[in-house]
Amino acid sequence: MTASPGRARRLRAAALALLLAAAHAPLLGACAAQASQLEQGRALRTGKPPYDEFFEAARALREESLRAEELAGAARVELARALGLDPRAAGDAALVDEAARARAAELRASGVALHVDLVPEARLVRGGRALGAEDRSLIEAVEACLKSSLAASKKLGELSKRAAELEKKRAELAAESTEALADDPRYREVKRELEAAERVLAESGALADRHAGKASKLVLDLVLAIDAGAGAVPARRSAASRAPARPAAAGAKAPSRRGGSAGAAPKPPPQPPRGGDDFDP
User: Is the CB of residue 75 less than 8 Å from the CB of residue 152?
Assistant: First the structure.
């Protein structure tokens, strides 16, 4: 009994698929084996202090960089909650900034004067009317957000510097490894880990830089939101508090200078002689 043409084609296709899978299995296994320990969150142990210390420092840096987003975003989550927003909306920077700006405008309109000081430490300076419990909670949350965002930006900036320093150390170890590990049976493994470390350090530094910038931007956005128009209210009040000048009566003459005639124009002050060394203010 012969197989139908359709069934024969299916059998040939299945056989071909099995052959291809068998041919590529060693290649796929080799690719999987090439994944470095460092990229998997582990530090290679060689028994040689310079290399072991480097791999451990690179592993720790990678772990810290993976928490960079959480570190930079924690302050915005607390601020979103204080503004009455869903904490899940904290990732929408524009929404949080707009809510902070609107709330600051409401406080100013109700007689609360607000101003941000960043040195010697971040704080929210307030004045005017007494604060209610809700207003006080909001202001405390904004002040805490400023402080934690500045701290996060500083910490992540230091993380980026550490990544650059470790990359210099990695390059030195890689250059020395051919001679230092010439007789070491793990030379190839160390070399592979050092090559992987270059990628890990570059990615970690870029991640730290990106989230340090986000933390700094949050501080700037809050300063702009809170200080926007802060100087306009005192200016309007001081202008309104001044008594308007009374217009001069029609036909009234300007008061005469003592010792001069009633309609005489004042004489210009004497000018110093030109061409000398006298100072001309």
Answer: yes
